[in-house]
């Protein structure tokens, strides 16, 4: 009697083979590109993936992965020059170029400026056009116009309101009137797709002659607050001349209220730390999720720079300002920002080169490790026209943010 060969069991998939919550939990752990493919499986699954709840769950797991150093970090950068159409994604640790992202929209006029990156959403602007863009899901949204005067004297910050799972753009405008009034402030909220005025709420001296908002870098978003540095010139009473000072403004993105933060006590400072003498060589930034203040001075001994960095360990507490280091740098250059892992990224002094028979600037970079005091030259080189404005750099990751927003444009 012949024996028949047994066939291996066949897995038969049937509807609701796995509970929906388990399926969604599995999907929430995947990369964005994989999740987008599952949107094509069924209308029901697509609806689940496009929901705010799923997008928020996926984002939280992604942020935990990055926080635990289980995720490769990326930075995104772009030069600010006319007709810029590319953003570059690089590895956070080495700054090696990974890919280039072509901007899918055009600005009517002006130079495209990169305002920042939050949870995979990039914010870009030119004059009065502002866009939110998520390149990983190929979606962008143009923001509605503001109610404030269309003045060139304004600054913009981009932030995430985590308690409400919302995104906001803060616009600070300097009125052109005398005597100088406090800044006018307006906030755009993505969930309502609208702008509204908010009070400045900080005591304002009547004898201020002039002020400006430092914009050398992206405004740091730390501990739920956006941060701005104001440089102020005051007319002293009784013929005392003029006095320069500065203040650190913090804007609570959730409550939409301003506050003032103290400067660190600097034993090496000559009094100019709070003035405007070193305005171009100091900045507010963030280091490993903490508010940081950097100051750079030329060193006559090494013909380079001396770098000083303070970090506010406990947010809002003056005594928690901690001076991390004060060290000389081997090469002179322009500080661009901290990487996710705490290294400082610099651009060297550009060199003139001929490129396609045009005289342009060759930009090279180096990383400085404050722990080992080791300086690493980066191999990649960026070529830009002579009139280019320096790079703006921010952390970057892929996410599903904007997928649940109305009136977006897919491309």
Account of the protein in words:
The chain is mainly beta. Helix content is 9%, strand content 45%. The protein has helices spanning 20-27, 32-38, 43-49, 52-67, and strands spanning 74-80, 86-91, 97-102, 113-118, 121-126, 129-134, 139-142, 154-161, 166-173, 184-189, 194-198, 208-213, 221-222, 225-235, 242-252, 257-261, 282-287, 290-299, 304-312, 321-329, 333-338, 344-348, 351-355, 358-369, 374-384, 389-396, 409-410. The longest helix has 16 residues, at 52-67.
From the N-terminal CA to the C-terminal CA, the straight-line distance is: 66 Å
Structural class: mainly beta
Q: Which value, in Å, is the CA radius of gyration?
A: 25 Å
Strand order of the largest sheet: 4-5-6-7-27
Oligomer: single chain
Overall outline = globular
**Low-confidence spans: pLDDT under 50, at least 5 residues?**
275-280
Beta content comes to over 45%
Largest sheet, in brief, is:
5 strands, antiparallel
Number of strand segments = 27
Could you tell me the mean pLDDT? 82
Total count of helical runs of at least 4 residues: 4
Amount of helix: under 10%
